[in-house]
Structure formats: C-alpha cells, structure tokens
Design brief:
By secondary structure, this protein is mostly beta strands. The chain has 4 domains: 82 residues, Phosphorylase Kinase, domain 1; 212 residues, Transferase(Phosphotransferase) domain 1 (Transferase(Phosphotransferase), domain 1), CATH 1.10.510.10; 262 residues, 6 Propeller (Neuraminidase); 266 residues, 6 Propeller (Neuraminidase), CATH 2.120.10. Helix content is 14%, strand content 37%. A 6-stranded antiparallel beta sheet has the order 1-2-3-4-6-5, covered by helices on one side. Strands 47, 48, 49, 50 and 51 form a 5-stranded antiparallel beta sheet that branches. Strand 31 and strand 32 form a beta hairpin. The longest helix has 24 residues.
Length: 879
C-alpha cells in the first residue's frame, strides 16, 4: 500500500493496527497536510464489521470538538473501506505515560480535556462504548484526541415528557451481545444489558485510575475472574495506592466506578467539573489532625492563608474551565436587532464602516443590483451606481466594503466578452460614500485596510489566489501567501491587532475553511474545520471571530462564533432565518448582517420563436413547501425538497408527491438524472465529506451504489442507450469526467481536470462539461466524445455552479443560462453556426440554479430561489 494514492491522499508509512483496521500516515495532495488513513482489515471485513466501520465515519464526522479526532473522508478503495482522519504526531495514552513519565497534574489536565470531549459527544446523543488508553491519542505538543467511535451508539432523544431510556443502534446488535474491551467495561455492558452514557463514565474512571495508580481498579488472572470482579467486587482502594491524591479523588472514583448506573455521575459534565476542581486543588496544603492546644494567637495569618488558598484554587479552576471554553458566552445575547431595510426586492452583502456610522449593501430595488449606502440614523438611502455597473455579485467572494476612513466604498466589477460570456478581467472601483464619480482602484479583489489604515491586503484571481499586502493606496505589493493550484483564497480581513491576515480557503463553494497567515508572510494555519460553505469572517475583538458556515449536513447559512485561541465553534443562529453575510465595526459594538429566509419553487416556460416574457411563465404546483433542482420525465417530475434540513429526492406525478430518497439516508446535494426510458434514477448521495453515485429504480426501490471510489462534484448524466452514466468527480488526486457502467464494473476517465456539470447529448455522440478556472466565476464549456476525444463546439462561457446548459432533442441546438445573480435569462445556441438568440425576458430578483428541458424539447422547467433577504443592524451590549 505504501506509495499508493487513495482519493487525494498518498500513503507514505504504515503506523500499525488500529481498532478494526490497519492505519497509515498519508499526505493530503490537495491541502499539503498529513493525514491518517485507516483500512478495514480484509481478514475481518464481514458485513457486520463493514457497517461498524462506516458507522465510525458517520458518528465521528458529526462531532466537532478540539479533543475529538477529526474525520476528513470515508470511502472504498479497491474493495476495502477506508477512513481518513487528522494525523496526530504522537502516541497512545499508554505509550505517552510510559515514555514521558508525566506528572499527575499533566495526566489529569489531559484527561480532563478528554472528559470534556466525551461530554460533548454525550450531549450530541452519542456514547462511545470503548473508552480505553489505546483510543486516546496524545500529540507531541501535549494535547489529546479521543478516537475510534467504531462501537458507538446513538441515543434517541426523548420527546418532552418521555423517559430517555431508548437506545438506537445504527449497527444491529443481537440482544445480550457483549461489545467493548473487557478490562474497561461497565458492569451493565459486561452483562449484555442496555448501556447508556454512564457506561462511558465508568470506563473513563477505570482509565483515570489506571494511569494515576499504575494498575487497574479491577484485576484478576483469568477472564472469568476479571468479569466477576467488575460485576461484584469493589475497586481497589485508591487512597492506599495514591495517598498524596486522597481525599480529593476518593469521592470521584466512588461515584465514577459505582456498580449501579444510577449511583454514578448522572452527567458526564458533572464528572468534568469534579475532575477539574480536584486537579486545581493539587499541591495545596492539607488539613492535618488536630494538635494539642497552644497558646492563643492572632487568627489574622491563618485567615490570610485560607483566603490565599481559596484564591489560588479559584484561579486554577477558572483557568482550567476557561481553557475548555466553559465560559463562552454568545456575543449576540441581549443584543438589539433592527431590520434596516424592507424593500420589495433583495438586499445582499451588508457592510458597516469602521466607525460604525455608515452601512453599504447591494440591492435590486431599482431593477438591476446596485451599490446603496445609508447613514445610521439618517433615514435616507442613496443609490451610488444607478444601474451603470453590471455583474456586481459573485456569491463566492466579498463584493464591496469601506475604505479605512469610511470616506469611500470599493466594489467589485467584471468585464465580460459580449460574444462568449467569458470573464475577461476582474477588479475594484472606488466611489465616494456621499456619492459621485467612481474611479478604477485595483485589478485585484477584496481589498481590506489594516486597523491603522496604513496597509491593505487583497488577492489576485490567479492560480492559487495569491494574497498580497501593499501600502494603503495599493502600491509596493508583496506576496505573503499562495495556495496550491485549484485551491482558492477569499474574504481577507486583518486581525484587530494587525498581526494576522485571516481568509477563507478551499474549493468553492462548499469545501472552505478559515485560515490565517502572519501579515509579514509565513506559514498559513487552519482555524476552522467545517469543510463547508464558510464565508465572511468578522472580528468583534482580538479573540472573538464571527463567520457564516453551513451545518455538518451541508444545510443552511448559519452564523457561528469562536474564540480563536480555543478554536471551538459555536453556532449562534437557529430557526428559519439564515445569515448570508456579517460585518463588524472596528470596536466590535455594531454588526450588520444580511438575514435571509429563502424560498424555492419550480416553473415552466415554452421555447418560442419570439421572446418569452413573464406572461408565458407558469408555476408548477407542488405539495411540498420547497422544491428545486427539477428533472423532467415523460409523465413525472423529479425534484429536491427539504423540511428545514438536508434535501431528499421527490417525485411528482399529477398532483401527488412521494419521497423516493430520504435525506436521513444521505443528503442529495445536486439534481438527479433520469434514464432515457424513465425506469432508473442516478443521483448524488452525501457520505460525510464525500458524495457518492447512487442508482435506484424510478419507484425508489433497489438502491445501490456505483463506482464507490469516485467523489462526485455535481449531477450525473445518462447515455441515450442507458448503459453508461457520466459524472464529474475526483478519484485519488485525479479530477475529471468519468463514465461509469450503469450495471456496475470498471469506470473510465474521459478527460482530466477540475471539471463540472457533464451533460450527454441525446444522440450519444458527445458529452458537454465546464472547466473550473482559477479566477473569476466564469467557466468555458467544452465537449468530449464517449471514447475520450475532443469534440468541437462553438465558444460558450457560463457561470460556475448549478445547471447551465441542456441540449435539445434535435441535437442541433443548446439552451443555456446566462446573466448575473438575480437577472438571468435563457438563450439558444445553434451548434452548427454558433448563432445565439435570447429566449426569455424574465422577472428579476430570483436566482436560477437548476433547469431541464422537457423530452419533446418544447419547454424549459426551471427553479427560482428567492432570498427574501434584508439588512439587519445589530447593536451589542457592553462587554
């Protein structure tokens, strides 16, 4: 296996056995970091263990805590399941103690962090069931990670008023089955009874006792005798073996190792607090037995000593809790929210000036999107650009902001090739905040001034999105960072102390995270680990960072906050309304947010010899609340819908809808594909951080995966004979368009590159695809034959993301979608002559993301996403 490439990870070294698999150190070829890759051992790869291995990936990836081993990816390689996690350069807890001989205090502080991680897992409804020293990894830097959730269970959350006693097992377990590691099992676990979070408390108590004392609390020469001791015998007295830690830990072990679950800690969080309090008291003077009476002295020195001891204990306890982010407080608590706009149209990307006096935003109030500005308390709104600057919105980057002194506003502009739609150049212009003529400023993107206004940072839309720091006017630039090819760097801001540049990096749109690099240049450092639609970082002070991100299941645009010293994310927004952007004043007392409650619906418009207008458009009535990403069959419609969470796949026949694939079985992130005869459906299914190809019958029966080594980038497409499915995907470190046998078998790569949106021509002679470029939101459209040869088509450029082209049944013409956000139209391209004709003149204010053409080629079926967004001013209370 050494030297092989799995997904985009190159295997470099075997590390040993881990749980049910063999573990290797690998190199992430995309992000240039080390990772650990665990393969399920072929010798034990029965169906039961395969399910448990997959469960480990699903459960671990759902947890977000600095002391829980992060899961990056899961998949299958050459018939073996694999799991990719962060790489911990260190050893197991047992090896660390034997090698480094740490002090009691070091051991206790480390295990307190593991107990806190376990508490977070329990609060998420997950129990581990296999806590032992081998499943706790200790890095050379001194921090610990809880690993191996292969035996974990999910605890069913009770409805109000119900008892929380039911346990849901994602891996079927026979009644009475004993699973775990014997010396660390709780009595009820050993007896094959139902186990809950208190079983983990018992196991952690055994680990804690063992690493402090040097032996376990229950020992015996045979398995049977050890089982009896755990079930019936008291633990070895802790005070006799570790008198210097008694009596602080006597009560802790009495509760943690109680035979009956009801007598143990009722909450893991209580164990965390007791552990931290007892650790904080280490080394303090102990009360001795009462001595013979002495002459009466002043009590002042004694009182002072007691007060000092209390202060030291309180300080140490506070420090320990603070380190675990125990005192985190939602910065939006008690804030005053004021909806600042109530226009009929859509408002986007609200920003606030550094002094907190002005707000700028994008709005289509007067038709096209323009730059607007208002003074807080002034009452009026000023349109600065007045329809003279098209293409103001690219929803993958920041599009406007204030200069350091607030006197000017910068905004992003594009220059397009009118004939092809190609994005020729991008840059920024400056316009006075009070209105007036604009002027060119930079041929780059996202300028942000330093806190003292003396410097600015920006990025250039070249390969790797190089980041530059320059003088305040853009002169004397010096490059401080460049990402690997194919990785983007957006949303640059300065830390309030001016030491760092924070930015969002990854693969747009949904594989991004926040990083930082010293303003003087140097090594970049990852701050968040969402691997989702992260955007718009904003600081309230030098430590409190706000940003927008999707949830773990890929849904929503939620507001998150974190202390950058601890790097524990906290979701701040819930409910229906989502946050599209966030911006903060320099003092962190005022925020401006774009709050949205998007709706999605599906419409149809005929392809006419004339320009179709809104009077020709008809809405398709669908029973579900949200509907988008349509695919039209001969007598039914496929679409995606969600009930406030991830999207599932639905089928509309007549006026009745049925859910064919539930999001709980794996969210469907992009549209499905219907086979030419309408009998089968191919669709993308999310598995953790990767997207797999799934096929099933059109009635939802017989689902099965295909080409499991591929991770899809968007929607699949069928060959006209129904024998092949083409996908844009990643395999290992290779990206491209692949064709996959619909009945299973080896797949073939047709063309290599970071490609998107394959679409097979109705006669089967070629496949369209778009090429993701390093800079700009535009992508050229190319074609390849089914045997991998280039196929000529007229020049065509489209925007990145979503459905952008469909070939009509006559194979002579192509329908494509062009236009800026909120103002998109359908056009017709003659594939022989290259001539173009506009098909529609639609109402503005909607984002069109998915469309299809009916089998007879007479109509376009498309979705409309309406943001329903407004600018909200948030005044924070004094902190």
């Amino acid at each position: 296996m050494i030297g092989r490439t799995v997904s985009h990870y190159k295997i470099e070294e075997k590390l040993g056995q881990g749980g049910m698999g063999v573990v290797y150190r690998a190199r992430d070829l995309t992000l240039g970091r080390n990772a650990a890759v665990k393969f399920l051992s072929s010798e034990i790869a029965d169906e039961h263990r395969r399910r448990r291995f997959q469960q480990e990936a699903q459960i671990a990836s759902s947890l977000n805590h600095p002391n829980i081993l992060a899961v990056y990816e899961a998949g299958t390689f050459e018939g073996q399941q694999y799991l990719v996690t962060e790489f911990v350069d260190g050893s197991t807890l047992r090896e660390w103690i034997q090698r480094d001989k740490p002090s009691d205090k070091q051991i206790l502080e480390l295990l307190a962090s593991i107990a806190d991680a376990l508490a977070v897992a329990h609060e998420a409804g997950i129990i581990h069931r296999d806590i032992k020293p081998e499943n706790i990894l200790v890095a050379r830097a001194g921090y610990a990670k809880l690993a191996d959730f292969g035996l974990a269970k999910l605890i069913e959350r009770p409805a109000p008023g119900e008892a929380a006693s039911t346990i849901l097992d994602n891996v079927h377990t026979e009644a009475g089955a004993v699973m775990g590691t014997l010396p660390y099992m709780a009595p009820e676990q050993l007896a094959g009874k139902e186990v809950g979070r208190r079983a983990d408390v018992f196991s952690l108590g055994v680990v804690l006792y063992e690493v402090l004392v040097g032996e376990r609390p229950f020992t015996a020469p045979t398995t049977a005798e050890l089982s009896y001791a755990i079930l019936h015998s008291p633990p070895k007295p802790f005070a006799e073996r570790k008198p210097e830690l008694a009596p602080e830990f006597d009560a802790l072990f009495e509760r943690a190792l109680a035979k009956e679950p009801a007598e143990r800690y009722q909450s893991t969080r209580d164990l965390v607090l007791d552990l931290k309090r007892a650790t904080a008291r280490l080394g303090q003077p102990r009360r001795e037995a009462q001595a013979p009476a002495q002459p009466r002295r002043s009590r002042a020195p004694i009182a002072a000593a007691v007060a000092l001891a209390i202060a030291v204990a309180a300080g140490a306890s506070w420090w320990s809790l603070d380190r675990a982010d125990f005192f985190w407080k939602n910065p939006l608590a008690d804030a005053r929210f004021e909806r600042f706009t109530d226009f009929a149209g859509t408002e986007m990307e609200g920003v606030i000036s550094a002094d907190g006096k002005f707000i700028a935003f994008l709005s289509d109030k007067d038709g096209p999107f323009d730059v607007w500005v208002t003074q807080i308390g002034g009452g009026g709104f000023l349109n600065l650009t007045k329809g003279q600057q098209p293409e103001l919105i690219n929803d993958e980057i920041r599009n406007l902001g204030f200069s350091a002194d607030g006197a000017q506003i910068w905004y992003r502009v594009n220059r397009l090739n009118a004939a092809t739609g190609e994005n020729v150049s991008s840059g920024c212009r400056l316009i006075p905040t009070i209105g007036g003529a604009s002027r060119p400023f930079l041929n780059s993107i996202n300028p942000a001034w330093s806190p003292d206004g003396s410097q600015l940072v920006y990025h250039n839309p070249a390969p790797g999105d190089p980041i530059f720091v320059a003088d305040r006017n853009g002169r004397n630039p010096r490059r401080i960072y460049i990402a690997p090819p194919g990785v983007h760097c957006h949303y640059q801001i300065w830390s309030p102390d001016g030491r760092y540049i924070y930015f969002v990096s990854g693969v747009p749109r949904d594989q991004m995270d926040i990083w930082r690099v010293p303003a003087a240049g140097g090594t970049a450092e990852q701050i968040t680990r969402h691997n989702s639609a992260v955007a718009f970082p904003a600081f309230l002070d030098n430590h409190t960072l706000l940003y927008r991100a999707a949830a773990d299941d890929g849904t929503g645009q939620w507001l998150y906050g974190m202390d950058v010293r601890k790097r524990i994310p906290h979701r701040l927004s819930h409910g229906v309304e989502q946050y599209r952007s966030i911006s903060a004043s320099a003092d962190g007392r005022r925020l401006v947010a774009t709050v949205t409650n998007p709706t999605a619906s599906i419409w149809r418009v005929p392809i006419l010899d004339r320009l179709a207008t809104e009077v020709d458009v008809r809405r398709i009535e669908i029973p579900t609340v949200r509907a988008h990403a349509p695919r039209q069959g001969r007598d039914f419609l496929l679409y995606l819908s969600s009930k406030g969470g991830a999207a599932g796949l639905w089928k509309l026949t007549g006026s009745a809808s049925v859910e064919l694939w539930r999001a709980s079985e794996g969210a469907v992130p992009t549209p499905a594909a219907l086979s030419p005869d309408g009998s089968r459906i191919a669709f993308p299914r999310r598995e953790g951080s990767v997207i797999r190809l799934q096929v099933m019958n059109s009635d939802g029966s017989a689902p099965r995966p295909l080409a499991t080594s591929l991770s899809l980038r968007d929607s699949p497409t069928w060959s006209p004979d129904g024998k092949w499915i083409a996908v844009a995907a990643q395999e290992g470190n290779q990206n491209g368009v692949f064709k996959v046998p619909a009945e299973g078998g080896p797949h073939q790569r047709l063309v290599t590159g970071l490609l998107r949106s394959p679409h097979w021509s109705p006669d089967g002679t070629f496949i369209l695809y778009s090429v993701s470029r390093e800079g700009g939101a535009g992508s050229p459209v190319k074609a390849v034959t089914p045997d991998g040869k280039d196929h000529p088509i007229p020049p065509l450029w489209v925007r990145r993301g979503g459905d952008r082209y469909r070939i009509l049944p006559d194979v002579k013409r192509l329908v494509f979608l062009v236009g800026e956000y909120g103002s998109q139209e359908f056009w017709l391209l003659d594939l022989s002559s290259g001539q173009r004709r506009q098909l529609t003149n639609l109402k503005t204010g909607y984002d069109l993301r998915g469309f299809d053409v009916t089998p007879d080629g007479r109509e376009i079926v498309f979705d409309r996403i309406h943001e329903n967004s407004d600018i909200v001013l948030i005044d924070l209370p004094p902190r």
